[in-house]
Amino acid sequence: MGPETEEAAKVKNASESREGSLSPTPFWGALCIMAQLDSRPEAYRHYHECQMSIRKIIHVDMDAFYASVEQRDDPQLRGKPVVVAWRGNRSVVCAASYEARRFGVHSAMAAVRAERLCPEAIFVPPDFPRYRAASQMAREIFQQHTDLIEPLSLDEAYLDVTENKSGLPTATRVAKTIREQIREELRLTASAGVAPNKFLAKIASDWRKPDGLFVIQPEDVATFLPLLPVGRIPGVGKVTEARLKQSGITTVGDLQLLELAVLEDQFGRYGVRLYELARGIDHSKVVPNRPTQSISAEDTFERDIPLVETESLIRRLAEKVWAASRKESRIARTVVLKLKTSEFNILTRSHTPPQPPATCEELAQIALWLRQRIDLGAQQHFRLVGVGLSNFRDAEDLQSPLFDEALQKVVS
Ligand SMILES: [Mg+2]
């Protein structure tokens, strides 16, 4: 079984709204024409900026966040391989310190595997209230610079600093200042990427990790992108990567050679997105405070299998989704099971129990029960399975004596 994506679980947010392409105002239009006629670098820069986007985006990503909080708060853990995970056969790694990563340990890996790779690792159970508190402090630092903050998780956020509140002259200076503040006030390190859009900012923050800052200027995009492996593009998981590799495509530069129609034919709507991302185009806005709508995880099998053989994977996916949902302050009401047949037909079944699942086992049980509602005969084979939680509600909206009990178990 090979994972379709490397992420443990995808968290989907509300209003995946994409802004249309920048409609150039008469001013920008005139500037573009001027720039095309004018070969001075400054004019080119303006031209390029109006072509790309005029946004300034920072992606801030705390380094090995949960593990770093543990090392900060317990001097005995410093400099040692630390794995944040619950104990147990089915547990997955929530975070690994850089010392543990040297042994090949990484988040979303089975905890038993991490133990095998690094027997001297110190296992620490996750303490989300403490991580949330540190995350909130980082958030307060961001708020000194901009109100346009889109958190992706407790340890990652996009900031739109096209206009910043702190009066600093450049987005790079804002990113530097934020990193210094995090170091001084939180005694933690963060990596930051600065770029004209979210896609490039996220790639940039990863470039000098840990404790790094990387800036992609609009005029650097054309030289920077072609060298990037396709696997770095969001949404390109191992399966897509392998498919592209079969066609001789390993870098974004290779991808740029494919026409839109070809990509659309191969990958449907995602093909359009691939076409744009390969050119560094991403119009998605930083959307402040958008609440999580769904969390899901899915896996593609190496060979197609019948329904009866899907149980162990459904259980594993339920673990991932459950771990991710524990970081949310809101509660999911609906359990979703997704299957893709060998003919690429997608089937989804969902169930909203009277009370939201209160344990990982309950989530797995509901997902397995939903499997019975797939009625395609024993001969049918499947290539992919996914488990999800959706229909997230604020805890206050679900207040009821019965619900309180479930809530106590979920929000620890
Ligand atoms: Mg991080």
Outline of this structure?
The chain is 38% helix and 20% strand. With 412 residues, it is an alpha+beta fold.
- Residue share in β-strands: 15-25%
Supply the helix-strand structural class: alpha+beta
- Biggest sheet character: 5 strands, antiparallel
Q: How many distinct folded domains?
A: 4
Stretches where pLDDT falls below 50 for ≥5 residues?
1-9, 12-53, 399-412
Query: Strand tally, please?
Result: 13
Give the CATH class of the largest domain.
Alpha Beta
Helix content: 25-40%
Q: What would the principal axes of the Cα set say about the shape?
A: globular
Order of helices and strands: EHHEHEEHHEHEEHEHEHHHHHEHEEHEH
Name the descriptors.
single chain; 412 residues; alpha+beta; DNA polymerase, domain 1; five-stranded antiparallel β-sheet
Describe the structure.
The protein folds into four domains: 20-49, no CATH class; 53-216, Reverse transcriptase/Diguanylate cyclase domain (Alpha-Beta Plaits); 226-288, 5' to 3' exonuclease, C-terminal subdomain (DNA polymerase, domain 1), CATH 1.10.150; 292-410, 2-Layer Sandwich (Dna Ligase, domain 1), CATH 3.30.1490. A five-stranded antiparallel β-sheet has the order 1-10-13-11-12, with helices on one face. A five-stranded mixed β-sheet has the order 6-7-2-8-9. Strands 4-3-5 form a three-stranded mixed β-sheet. With 412 residues, it is an alpha+beta fold. α6 runs antiparallel to α7 and α12 packs across α13 (269-277). It contains 16 helices and 13 strands. Bound molecules: magnesium ion (MG). Magnesium ion (MG) is lined by residues 61-62, 65, 155-156.
